Amino acid sequence: MTIPYTNSKSSKKQQVASMFNSIAHSYDLLNRILSFGIDIIWRKRAVRVLKKYQPQIILDIATGTGDFALAIVKKIPLSKVIGIDISENMLEKAKQKIARKKMNDRIGVELGDSEKMKFADASFDAITVAFGVRNFENLDTGLFEMYRVIKPGGVAVILEFSKPEHFPIKQLYFFYFNTIVPAIGKLFSKDSRAYNYLPESVDAFPYGDAFLEHATHVGFAKTKHIQLSFGIASLYVCEK
Question: How does 140-157 read in b/e, with b if 16+ C-beta sit within 10 Å?
Fold first, then answer.
């Protein structure tokens, strides 16, 4: 299991919360710089897929600073989103952003553990996660919780980094992720370790068909994997 701080004895969950608390102040800026803004395009693609299901009540796990939640309510009429995250500082940024966009009536955010959610069974039409599942302490536990709180016929739409497999994207990607990303992260963030953890966590994560096997194992009946940007990221669509 990949963890942010190898010299710490705390759990992965505690370390991830601490890591995001420490980088919350620069998170949005670094996201735009490190992804060249492509992460915005990926979220728009995910929302287009989600919109086909016309969900009204949506849970956004690992909501962070609220970008995915805001993209959803902008494009899906009448939808409402509850966002949860384990990082208080990230949630504070999300609250500020949601208030500026005047979306408090459609988006609510709260502290919450994706692997032990307080919500009743079959509470949501859909669940979204953007770049959060690789941070689960136990992937199957987190996926089962998602399955549990989705209504029958509902869907989980998950964005996550993956690994390109073809020349030259593969070579450029690994050089950028393993060399450039940590260097830029060190310049802009108080926590340089966070941007070393990023490529490590991506490398350890079961992407593509391997991830879909986990989704099927916890009960999802129909799953699909869509490669984005030559395999740099993946969009997973898992129906209950």
Answer: eebbbbbbbbbeeebbbb
Fill in the DSSP letter of residue 129: E
- CB 50 within 8 Å of CB 22: no
What is the C-alpha to C-alpha distance for residues 43 and 18, in angstroms, rounded to an integer?
Answer: 25
Q: Which positions ≥6 away from 189 have C-beta within 8 Å?
A: 22, 23, 26, 30, 195
Q: Which domain holds residue 43?
A: 12-239
Nearest to 132 by CA among 151, 119, 145: 145
Q: Which amino acid is at 142?
A: G
- Asked, for residue 48, whether it belongs to a domain, the answer is yes
Residue 150 lies in a domain: yes
User: Which two three-digit tokens encode residue 169?
Assistant: 């994207």
Tokens read off for 101: 């966009």
pTM of the model: 0.95
pLDDT tens readout for residues 99-156: 999 999 999 999 999 999 999 999 999 999 999 999 999 999 999 999 999 999 999 9
